[in-house]
Structures are given as structure tokens and as C-alpha cells.
Amino acid sequence: MDSPFIDACRRRDPEYTPVWFMRQAGRYLPSYRKIRGTKSVMEIAKNPELSSKVAVDAARALGTDAAIIFADIMLPLEGLGVKFTIIENVGPVVRNTIRSRDDVDSLSSFDAEVHVPFVLEAIDATITKLDGSIPLIGFSGAPFTLAGYMIEGQPSRELTKTKSFMYENEKAWHSLMGKLTAMVRDYLIAQIRHGVQAVQLFDSWVGVLSPSDYSRYVSQYTRAIFESLPQNVPKIHFCADSGNLIEQFHAAGPDVLSVDWRVPIDAVWDRCREGVAVQGNLDPSLAAVGGNAMVRGVRQVLKGARGHRGHIFSLGHGVLRETEPANLRRIVKMVHQTRRS
Ligand code: 1CP
Question: pTM higher than 0.85, yes or no?
């Protein structure tokens, strides 16, 4: 497959800058809302026919250079015995939160073929539907972000309970991170076996950590995951609000760093001595606002990337629900029409 997206991940100069959006299949898109109807996110994710349709429809509606499998980061945790519900307008809520070493010890071990066969079937179906037109990105939540939901029990911005568990039960923390690392590896390797052409690790909330805590409690697990994946599949590391950790993410070994709008995009290449591809980083609010502010924002990101190898245009985080799909189509057009040199 000739793909500007894969070329950019590899820092080969594609003809034009590729673009895709995190949460491109979501509530802002009428075709998704129609399928979502009364079904939950999990019901769609567990139905390969529907989840592959949702993923492909979104990529086609926008004209993006990659599709992403429709799933949720929480999904594989069911295999470990985590009981949760995804609540409308809130997010994942876990019933059996992790409070002690015993809770960590009682987690089951994970086998993708046994616990999430529907994700793997959805990958097969999505690849068939895409028919070689664009690559499919697989993904997993990263151990820290998953541990955050398991310990907090609900979305949290400060992750205070998680930090307290990490500091006060250091052994149990490392045991939990070890189990999650094994799960993420198995999950991503199974996705790759089923044909995804790139993988993204979502460590959405790890930016709450200081550089020294990141290095003591998290970085070894991220590195172990990236090291265990086959070389021929590009690996993307995503985190929001984490300008303080860029060099450490880079050292963990991904091919692509996905950064948000709080850092100037050119600074990422500078800080990593051009040794990485960069994905991002338009403020999702600008995509929702549209008009001149959005156009200026897109130009600014493209200008920041000029002269650097390996740029994948994206938003700094997921598409906001109030975004008009036409705004995203306009971004895709602008990015594709802009000359790289
Ligand atoms: O239909 C709905 O109710 C909309 C909300 C939604 C969607 C579309 C949730 C609940 N999950 C999903 C699917 C999903 N989740 C996808 C596939 C869609 C696509 O990208 O096209 C992906 C990649 C995810 C990943 C995900 N889920 C992340 C990592 C990305 C990020 O935004 O940082 C996280 C943190 C989650 C947890 C989650 N699931 C749902 C929500 C609202 C949240 C976030 C909760 C929070 O703020 O903590």
C-alpha cells in the first residue's frame, strides 16, 4: 500500500501531509449518531459489522489518510476482570476499583483471542471494507492511563487517588503496571497480527506526573511495550498536556509523538533532534469554532512543521462533540493542498 500516513510515520517525505483525527468516529458525526441510536459504545465495539462500518464511514466522510479501529481503551480490561460501564457524558465508571495489593493480585491474565475476539474480527472486517485505500490504526490505552481509571473509578483530572496508590503501595503499583504492560503488549500484537498498519498508545493523562515520577513509575513500562512490538509497524505515542515530558516520551522509543496545542510543534522536532515524526497539534476548539480562527490555526501548525520531516496533521486531542463535520473536511482539504517545501 502506498500511504502518505505510513511514509510520514517513517519520516520519508510524502507528496502531501497526511491527516486524521482522534475520535473521528464520534457523536459529532450524523452517521455515527444514527448508528449509535440507543446502542452503547460497548455494544457497537462488540459488534464487528457495526464497529467496522463506523470506522470506515468516518474516514470516508472526512477524506482522512488513515482510519482507526472503533473500540475504547477500557475494552480489554474486561479480560482482567474489571467491571465498568461507559456513562453518557461522563466516561468510564469502574465498579471494582483497585484499592490494595490483593485487588491487583486477583486480576486475571489477558488473552486477546479469548477476551476480545470481536476487536480482532472488527479489524478483519474494517480492513476488508477499506480494501487497501488507507491504512488502519490499532490502539490501546497505556498502563498509566488505564491504571488511573481502575484506581479512581471514574474520570478525574488530578488523579490524586492514583498518585497516592503509586506512592504508598509502590510494590503493588509495579505489579499492576507489569500486568497492564503484559495485557497491552498481547493486545497490540494481536491487532498487528490481524493487519493493523500502525498502532497508537494512548497515555492520555500521564502529563499529570512530574518528570522524575514519570521516570520512576511509568517510563520503563512504555519502553517495554514499544520494544516488544515488531519494527515494521510504526508506533505512535499520544499524551495530552505533557510538554514537560517530550524528551522522556521520545526516549521510550515511539516512531511518532502525538502532542497537543500547548507546545509549538516545531519545538518537538528541536527537542528530539529531528529523531521522531510528530502528529498534531491543532487545538480541537479551533476545529469546533471554524471560520478564520480555524484557518489561521491550521496555517500556523503547517508553518511550524515546514522544513521538518515526518508530520502527520491532527488535532491535539479528540474531536469535540460540537464540531461541524464540514470544518474537518475543510481542514483535510487545506492540509492536502499545502505544499511541503
Ligand atoms: O458515543 C459516545 O458516547 C461518545 C464517547 C466515546 C467514544 C466515541 C467513548 C466514551 N468512547 C468512544 C470510542 C473511542 N474511545 C475511540 C474510537 C473512536 C475514534 O477515535 O474514531 C477511541 C480511540 C477511544 C479512546 C479513549 N477512550 C481514550 C483515549 C483517547 C483520549 O481521548 O484521550 C480515553 C481516555 C477513553 C475513555 C473514554 N471513553 C469515553 C469517554 C467519554 C472517555 C473519556 C473520559 C474522560 O474524560 O476521562
Answer: yes
